[in-house]
């Protein structure tokens, strides 16, 4: 099997990270892979916000928990109420991916960039977890101010967040894959 297929086969969503920061070289390679993702009509309607500042990560985790508790969504309230819930799984690096809200393909393009990030990370021995739930961060007045302070451009909305860091333990087992979701028309 070739190296690319092996990386795809081995990548898992990691939810336990060691505290040490990934290297600058690894981060640059991962960000470059995001910038090389395909986009419709080469519009590149994305914005990437890389966060490694511990105080900011702690602020974001606090705000995420608060917004989840206020959401009225039973699942989110229950999850945020659980004392063992750790937003972002203590990852030392987050990449927020935002899309230009006027670009009708922006979410798809950002999803391709997120997958490139996850695969590049795996190829470098860095764990990753792609998350959509952090969108709730920006659903309050404090969240709107947070987006501004993080440099998210006006007119852009959160699509997903990728948590990055060194894995704290072995890869999780491969969950069963649905095989009846493919049909061929030949």
What does this structure look like?
The protein has 186 residues and is an alpha+beta fold. Helix content is 39%, strand content 16%. The protein has helices spanning 3-10, 24-35, 54-70, 74-81, 106-123, 141-149; strands spanning 46-51, 93-100, 127-131, 156-165. It has a four-stranded antiparallel beta sheet with strand order 1-2-4-3. Helix 2 runs antiparallel to helix 5 and helix 3 crosses helix 4. The longest helix has 18 residues, at 106-123. It is globular and about 50 Å long. The two termini are 26 Å apart. The relative contact order is 0.23.
The biggest sheet amounts to: 4 strands, antiparallel
Shape: globular
Task: State the end-to-end distance.
Answer: 26 Å
Number of E-type strands: 4
This entry's quaternary arrangement is single chain
* Uncertain spans: none
Total helix count? 6
Indicate the mean pLDDT: 96
Helical proportion, percent range = 25-40%
Output the structural class: alpha+beta
Q: What spatial order of strands do you see in the largest sheet?
A: 1-2-4-3
Over the alpha carbons, how many angstroms does the gyration radius reach?
Answer: 17 Å
Q: Give the helices and strands as they follow along the chain.
A: HHEHHEHEHE
Q: Proportion of β residues?
A: 15-25%
């Amino acid at each position: 099997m070739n190296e690319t297929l092996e990386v795809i086969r081995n990548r898992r969503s990691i939810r336990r990270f060691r505290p040490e920061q990934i290297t600058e070289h690894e981060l640059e390679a991962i960000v470059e892979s995001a910038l090389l993702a395909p986009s419709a009509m080469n519009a590149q309607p994305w914005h990437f916000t890389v966060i490694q500042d511990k105080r900011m990560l702690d602020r974001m985790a606090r705000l995420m928990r608060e917004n989840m508790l206020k959401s009225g969504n039973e699942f989110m309230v229950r999850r945020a109420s659980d004392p063992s819930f750790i937003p972002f799984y203590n990852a030392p690096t987050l990449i927020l991916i935002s899309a230009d809200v006027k670009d009708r393909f922006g979410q798809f393009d950002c999803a391709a960039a997120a997958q490139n990030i996850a695969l590049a990370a795996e190829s470098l021995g860095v764990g990753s977890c792609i998350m959509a739930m952090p969108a709730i961060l920006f659903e309050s007045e404090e969240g709107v101010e947070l987006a501004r302070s993080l440099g998210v451009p006006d007119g852009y909305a959160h699509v997903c967040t990728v948590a990055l860091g060194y894995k704290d333990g072995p890869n999780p087992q491969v969950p069963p894959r649905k095989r009846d979701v493919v049909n061929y028309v030949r």
